[in-house]
Design goal:
2 domains, Aspartate Aminotransferase, domain 1, Aspartate Aminotransferase, domain 2, 7-stranded mixed β-sheet, alpha/beta, about 40% helix, binds pyridoxal-5'-phosphate
Length: about 350
């Protein structure tokens, strides 16, 4: 018998990334997807125009350095272009960061539960994922994360607002934490949802990056800016970090359509951020409705809410599916519901009114 191809063992046993599912059709009901933290609003017509224009040059490779986008981002955030690295979504940039700083045997610390891609990306690099449980109130346990630092630690992810719990790390908590982090360990503040934050005490990633030599910030155009399908994310950090993260990028990873759409989105940012504000207002309404129904939830500062159904998670998601709404289950733990279309959220509230907690 021929020998099987040798796949790296850590990859063979790796679970595949689970993306949010679509709702199966239900007769007479429009289907809604609240399972991927997407922006429910249609793309801006002005951005669509730029995309149509960019489509005329798809026979050419894109600018591998995303020069115009990098410059626009530098200007927008008051940093130099050398401090920026772009990638195929912020998950792509996450992978570039890990490749840049961690190899076999190195350790990467992050809270758990948090963004599902962290353990996968760590495993791909051959690094060890050190998962530090969230506090009972779903916040990052930063003192425990500091305790977990060893000589092998190369990277720490701090996800704020955290996916899937929506909780934020406060600036004070972060400043205390940074007194315990060696300066040669990179701390990446993953701010994929930061535009939805309304908590004034929350950690400010960019201000922290200016304050500490080993802090970088991760951002995305997928959520607030509504470009999830185009795959654009970026890091802002110390020049040597950004340079290393540019080196580990897949060449030509960010398409010309994505680059131009991201630049156009920055030009139309006011309009986009008004929409973000509407999503925040919907979140506040939805949270109030949940509390009225007796759900003791933590405040979310993201475009989703987290309901800890524990063992009943599967049952609840099945009820949502019957109403043609896809929510995101984390079996045995809870359900993440994206703040999407109001009709879908109303259907969820109706289910919750009769669902046994
Ligand atoms: C915390 C966090 N970081 C990063 C990402 C990656 O998003 P994208 O690759 O679309 O930028 C996500 C996506 O869900 C996320 O939740």
């Amino acid at each position: 018998m021929s020998k099987p191809i040798r796949i790296r063992p850590e990859i063979a046993k790796l679970p595949t990334y689970k993306a949010g599912q679509k709702a199966a059709p239900v007769a007479g009901l429009e289907s809604f997807k609240l399972s991927s933290n997407e922006n429910p609003m249609d793309p801006l017509p002005s951005v669509l125009e730029v995309i149509a224009q960019a489509a005329n040059s798809i026979h050419r490779y894109p600018d591998p350095f995303a020069t115009q986008l990098t410059q626009a981002l530098a200007q927008r955030h008051g940093v130099t272009p050398e401090m920026i690295a772009t990638g195929t979504g912020s998950v792509g940039v996450c992978q570039q960061i890990v490749q840049a700083v961690a190899g076999a045997g190195d350790e990467i610390i992050f809270a758990w539960r948090s963004f599902e891609a962290y353990p996968i990306i760590a495993a791909i690099a051959g690094a060890k994922a050190i998962q530090v449980p969230l506090r009972p109130d779903d916040g990052h346990d930063l003192p425990a994360m500091a305790e977990a630092i060893t000589d092998a630690t190369r990277l720490i992810f701090v996800c704020t607002p955290n996916n899937p719990t929506g909780t934020v790390v406060s600036q004070q908590e972060f400043d205390d934490f940074m007194t315990k982090v060696p300066t040669d360990v990179l701390v990446v503040v993953d701010e994929a949802y930061v535009e939805f934050n309304r908590d004034p005490q929350a950690l400010d990633g960019l201000a922290s990056m200016n304050k500490y030599s080993n802090v970088a910030v991760l951002r995305t155009f997928s959520k607030a800016y509504g470009l999830a399908a185009l795959r654009v994310g970026f890091l802002i950090g110390p020049e040597e970090v950004a340079e290393a993260v540019r080196k580990t990028a897949v060449p030509f990873g960010v398409s010309n359509i994505a680059q131009d759409a991201a630049v156009a989105s920055l030009e139309h940012e006011d309009e986009l951020l008004k929409r973000v504000n509407d999503i925040v207002l919907t979140r506040e309404w939805f949270e109030a409705e949940l509390r009225q129904r007796g759900y003791d939830i933590e405040d979310s500062q993201a475009n989703f809410v987290w309901l800890k159904f524990g063992d009943r998670t599967g049952d609840f998601v099945a009820e949502c599916a019957k109403q043609a709404v896809a929510a995101r289950p984390f079996p045995g733990e809870g359900v993440r519901i994206t703040i999407g279309e109001e009709e879908a959220l109303k259907r969820i509230l109706n289910i919750l009114s009769t669902f046994e907690k």
